[in-house]
Amino acid sequence: MRLMADFPWVLWLLPLALLPLAASSQRVTPLSSIAASPVDGLSRLIGWSLRAAGILAIGGLVVALAGPYRQGETITRTGIGAQVSILVDRSGSMNETFAGLQPSGAEESKAAASRRLLGEFVGSRAHDQFAVSAFSTAPMLVVPMTDRHEAVRAAIAAIDRPGLDYTNVARGLGMALSQFGASTANVSRALLIVSDGAAVIDPRVQGTLRAEFARLRPNLYWLFLRTKGSPSISDRPSGEDTPQAAPERHLDIFFKSLGTPYRAFEAEGAEAVADAIGQIERLERDPIPYIEQRPRRDLAGWAYGISLLGLILLVAAKLAETDLGRNKGRSQTSQTGVPTTPQRRLAA
Q: Alpha carbon of 32 to those of 27, 29, 35, 36, 37: distances in Å?
């Protein structure tokens, strides 16, 4: 914690706080001899307490006028979460329902269901960091890696807009991997692909992707939004088994060959998507460092409060000096002009 002041030159007036040690504001009663006054430890304690109150009153006021504050700082802490790069398919087929039809009434498209459930996933843990990328004909960075969950949810809310026809998953994977950066060596990383299909990855691009996966080693999850009645990623085609004939199957084979932790989820409805996202959330529970920004904190209020406390004690002590009986007698004499009973006795 670093203490600073807006007007540090005012602190040169702090020696004024020692004035109560040299002079007292309390009433002084003259005595012919100090020996005539009995030793009173309580009175001495009260006297020193009032001097301390004077020091607090003057010192607190000087410090408050200097404008003290605690400087802001950046603290690195450790929480539970992960860096999750979400790659969303924006091809035209994502605008259809899980039955392969155009949505009508209360029916949800695959894009709308993904948007709703991913929005619930983001923000379920305070320290997760997210990046969102989309791909169809070309990849598009929606939001870079950040812990600003509101911005991430806003980015996810846009994924149900109409998409294009072509699916270029290779370039999308490259952009999603680039969101992890090079300074996250000790952070748990996860790449989540949300797609209802796949395309053929050029063998020349496969080598580049393999190198990036080997360098970053993220946990890879493929949320395959399968249209009802379509082949599974594990189904071998009846004819020629080529990437052109079964792109989803061969993309799954490619992911399994990367040597990185990989898991595929086939979902044929919104409930299956929710279950898959829940499993991913439970799997990604590793320590993650995060940055906590502490803003500047004004301390002038505390200094004014200390000064006010000292002033209240001094005012209370001053009021305790008042001799109400004596003041009352003086008031009666001045108003009537007739001596009071004690005065008559003295006259006699």
A: 16, 10, 9, 8, 10
